[in-house]
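My hope is that you will study the protein record below before we discuss the fold together.
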Amino acid sequence: MNVLIIYPNGNALNPHSGAETRIWNLIYALTNRKINLTVLHSVKSIGLEDEDLKKKCTVFYNKQLGFFRFYLTDLNPFFILKLFRIIRMHNFDIIQLEFPWGFLTARILSNKNTLLIYDSQGIESEFMKIAIKNPEFPKVFRPFAKIFGKIYEKLVCKLANVIVNVSNVDRNYYMEHYKIEKNKTILIQTPSTLNFKGNERTEDYKMKCRKNLGLPLNKTIIIFHGGLPHPPNQEAFDLIKNYIAPKIKNSNILFVIAGHNLEEFRKKNIISLGFVKNLREFLFAADYAIVPIISGSGMRIKCTDYIITALPFVTTKIGIEGIEFVNPKEDYLVYEDVDENFIEGINLLYENKELREKIHKNLLKKSNFHNRSKFEHKFFKLYSYLKKS
């Protein structure tokens, strides 16, 4: 089976963000199944790829051209020419795009027998609402960006042979707003990149991880991580720095944040580690986590990281959206917004160690729900079904 994965504006062979985590897991899974895999991703990925994984597939690079790198990928001449050459060189059974941008070009250039999968990371029209707040977003495009995103994604959903959603929230949105039949969609949630369970969470190991990261041994550490420039993560980091941390007066509490493209700094009760190479150590150095996400759609991979390591966390409703096998109060604390109630939840987990331990034990029972093998099996089953049909 010949498969082409298209991620023209990011690194498909090294997980730094939620979307890249999903793609990396998928490529890892497909190469294990001995599928003939071709990858088209950003030229900026050169030198930053997982070299072992790269050897198992054929890799091509897309040259990003100014603003064409995102929403107008279909107009990028480098992308069009590169994709034209790749498709003419190979006879693909399946072409899968990780975002809608560039889908129209792929549909036009692909062979009539090639099946196209739209692997949706979330609702793009919702992401567009956040993206236009970015000062670097082209002013000329702002007035019609949201409507363009919605129309384009609806077109992609109509043209795709199959749509893969990461949450039922997104799936239901497509069916209601884009009038997509349910049998055209499939739910495959993103696993954590981590392949261990939270029963490794011991006091000795926590101290070891803190020493390796240069963190205090005598503080209650609360973590959050996420890649930038993803706008929901930027909002969350800003909330931690400007609202949450100043509201917490307990000198024993320390917030530690990390993420791709995040600057390093140390303030009164916040430490920013920037990008951490060893996510495992970062997660096991913590006492609990927070997810102050207030916008966006899709699925927050950071939550699966916390669940698989059985790390108690406080989240907003949007933060936990799309993850349906865990229950509020039993497995995490959830609040409508980042407000005084959210702050009370942070203090509650500090004061009530019995509650923290109860949540930890509940999460241990569910830490295997989002493992990589289930993710791999669902995609391979989908590909096999499409190949036969």
About this structure: The domain at 198-364 is CATH 3.40.50.2000 (Rossmann fold). The CA atoms of residues 174 and 180 lie 6 Å apart.
